[in-house]
Amino acid sequence: MSVIESIAANVGKKTRSILDFDDDTEEIVIYGAINLIQTTVSFLLAIAIGFIFDVIYESLVFTITVSMLKKYSGGAHASTPGRCLFIGSTISVIFSLLINKILFKQNIWGITVIGILCTGISLYIIIKKAPVDSENKPITSNKMRQRLKLDSIATILIYSIGMVIVLLIFKISANLVYIKIFECVSLGTLWQSFTLTKTAIKFLHKIDYLLPF
Questions:
Q1: Deepest in the core among 2, 13, 150, 200, taking most CB within 10 A?
Q2: Region 133-162: what's the mean pLDDT?
Q3: Which has the closest alpha carbon to 92: 68, 67, 73, 118?
Q4: How far is it, in rounded angstroms, from Cα 60 to Cα 181?
Q5: Which residues constitute the domain of residue 135?
């Protein structure tokens, strides 16, 4: 058991002793604690690496988008939290550079189409696949599975509303920052949804196997 998992397990046990709930609720608390800790560390890494590559803003928005959805949808997991954070940070930088150097320069109609396609594909995958657990963190409760699926769908719908608002603000202000936000959310949602598929899981497991640490 990793340090993150040990801390989350302790949080679950202490919370259960205080609130006196059942096994299913304790599992949900532990699962949430693991994701919260990993999200916090990912957030700090996004700031550091984004600063190095001069894409701090894009990296932060992309990482937050991915992390919030992953909290409910699950997805491909590395063998250790350290590898998971390394792979996640690398993906964040790659997408951030892509957005910063290429995609945000497209016209508004092309950007809107990309956003619609990303959201539609993501929603389809989430409905079909979410949540996806791992051998190390299996989800044994049907109640929890149903809750996580609904929360995943709700997250994408909230993202969609936010993306529409961002586009409207862009049309009023003509500030390209809002285009970057739109694309970060679009591609972050698509990437996290893609990690639920068998293809992505196999691909990321191969990368995990090749890492020397």
A1: 200
A2: 87
A3: 67
A4: 10
A5: 3-210
